[in-house]
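Hi U.,

Before I forget, here's the chain from the pilot set. I'm dumping it here mostly so it's searchable later in email.
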Amino acid sequence: MLEVRFYDTVPDDKLKFAVILSKTREKWVFCRHRERTTYEIPGGHREIGENILDTAKRELYEETGAIKYSLYPIGAYSVTDTGAEESFGMFYYADIEEFEKELHSEIEEIIITEELPGAWTYPLIQPKLMEYAKKAGFF
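Structure:
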């Protein structure tokens, strides 16, 4: 069974990924990978030698084309699946002001919407992130 936990702090060396809940002009920004039909919150894995904030900035750019934005930490969280090791990431909020004209990654499209997607890529994780961000006062 998949479990999502939230933390005030996690040692930096344990953070393996960054996820960035994003809005532009008061609307949500979600992305869709070219090999999927579902939507997700932008994010991805940390590269060797990269600090977690730079991971968030890189992933936000790669997955949305955001080039001008404000970025705020929401908190750390982990995901554990039955029999698997706990995996930690950092959760951010971005207010995007400007996008590049086209995407240059594995992302097929972004959507800018007032509604949450009906089909999440990670339905056991993403709604919990949204709920946590709401409780933290990010929307």
